[in-house]
Amino acid sequence: MACFLLLSSVMYNELLPVVDENDRVIDTLPRHHVHAQTLRHRAVHILVFNDQGRLFLQKRSLLKDLNAGLWDTSAAGHVDAGENYDSCALREIEEELGIKADDGLEPLFKLPATAAIGMEFIQVYRCRHNGPFTLAPDEIETGDWFSEQELSVRIAADDQTLTETFKTIWRHYRP
Question: Considering only CA atoms, which of 144, 142, 150, 85 is closest in space to residue 111?
């Protein structure tokens, strides 16, 4: 229980830049205010593929306040106040998967902030890595590799064990 309270306190006090419809910073507020008021903010999602072309997905920890226990992109997170998308992506992949990707992150596309994806402008990246990973236990319950074909079938079937954000990213990545 103490671990959950500590994690909740950290998330509660995390400062995020609030952005306008053009992704320009207009304010900085605590994470819980940003989410409670459904304000536009920034996030990154990283797709980690291995040499066989399989995608690593994380199953989100049951301690997460959003999408707990659902399968999501390899690594993801909010862009913190004073941070840019690229530095956030490097931080998140190291924090969540325990790897450094200093030269290996390729920006793919940026999704506009919509209600379906939590009012987040999302910069999506891709990289190659075969593991092993050191998964952050407060963030990730487990992880596994999936073929592109398997993921496309699951998304076409609207698999409810996958986050809506991952499904949106995948549809954009593989139309």
Answer: 85
CATH class as words, domain 39-173: alpha beta
For the record, the structure tokens of 78 come out as: 């909010």
Question: What confidence tens digit (pLDDT) does each residue in 71-82 have?
Answer: 999 999 999 999
What ranges in the chain are assigned the alpha helix state H?
Answer: 2-13, 31-36, 85-97, 148-156, 164-173
pTM of the model: 0.90
Closest by CA to 9, choosing from 136, 118, 119, 138, is 138
Amino acid letter for position 23: D
Other C-beta atoms lying within 10 Å of the C-beta of residue 19:
20
Task: Tell me the Ramachandran region of residue 59: left when phi exceeds 0, alpha when psi lies from -120 to 50, beta otherwise.
Answer: beta
| β-bridge pairing 71-72 and 41-49 | unpaired
